[in-house]
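Thread: sanity check for a docking pose with zinc ion

Original post by kr_44:
Hi all, I'm comparing my docking run against an independent structure prediction. Below are the sequence and the ligand SMILES. Could someone generate the full complex and paste the structure tokens? I mainly care about where the ligand ends up relative to the chain.
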Amino acid sequence: MNGKAQGHTAVVGVDVGGTTITAMVVDATLQPCGHYSGSTDKQTPTSTLDSIQTAVYQALAQSGYALTQIAAIGMGIPGRVDPEAGMVHLAVNLNWDDMPAGPMLSAALGGIPCYLENDLHLAALGYYTFFTNQTIQHMAYVSVGTGLAAGLILDGRLYRGAHGMAGEFGHMVVDPDGPRCNCGNHGCLEQYVAGPAIARAGQQAAAAGLWEPGKEVAKVTAVDVFQAAHQGNPAAQTIINQVGTYLGRGLQALIMAFDIDKIILGGGISRAGDTLRQVILREWQRQAALSPLAAEMLLADKLELAPADSNPGAWGGVALARQMLAKTTPQRLLTTA
Ligand SMILES: [Zn+2]
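Reply from moderator J.T.:
Ran it for you. Here is the predicted complex with zinc ion included:
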């Protein structure tokens, strides 16, 4: 069997994405001891739940912990979540609509409490709890990937907003005549800065003969455009400069609205690393040259890249599980397992 003797002190953090599910087991001393990443099965809502269970079981198998030794599971879901009821009201990328995922997963996983929260809220909580020294009390974790959104830590605590929708600044309209967004509106910020928009612009430039991507035009990704820009291709540089201008303005709005002290850039596009950071800083410098207020607020050291593979979403699940455990009596936990 296993030699783990800590009892109900280990927790599991899970980050459920539209394509990948990551599960991580962390022991009482906060050491990760089991990890699994697998693809999200989206054929039916039930098969998605099954793939979440599989991820949890695989991570547990690696950790040496039995399911009955896990005190709680914290889970990030890409959608609008009611944490009290464990209800997911809408998760477009999972095809979930009013799904009581918390109670269903808890029942399927031996009655272990399963706490749910929006994925970006959890990424912000995870990053803040485990990757900062918490001297900065106002932080935004901004994910630039297939979409654009932020999780906000204000006054040292996760800020959810009235409906758990705080941080959805990717749907801020920057041009009402702009391209149509998945949300139905036109010209949302994420239509200018997120991965699909960058890929689309790169494909258009390649189709127009402005650059040679070295692969089929339809397969050009945002990362290809960043690489081409980094290598000095003028068409790709123009695209990335536009992305930086829009994203720089969006992040400026975030900073001005909440007096944010630190922005952590994560998500798929953040793998473009310093190229992305530099184009944003260029927009901030442009504003700072015009405005003493901007010069005071838009300091370069406010903008950091999340370390690659830091897994803040799964760590956020760990933070949530431990927060909820702290609120619950151990007696109650033992009888639910
Ligand atoms: Zn939108």
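The chain has two domains: 10-123+311-336, 137-260+268-305. Hope that helps with the comparison, let us know if your pose agrees.
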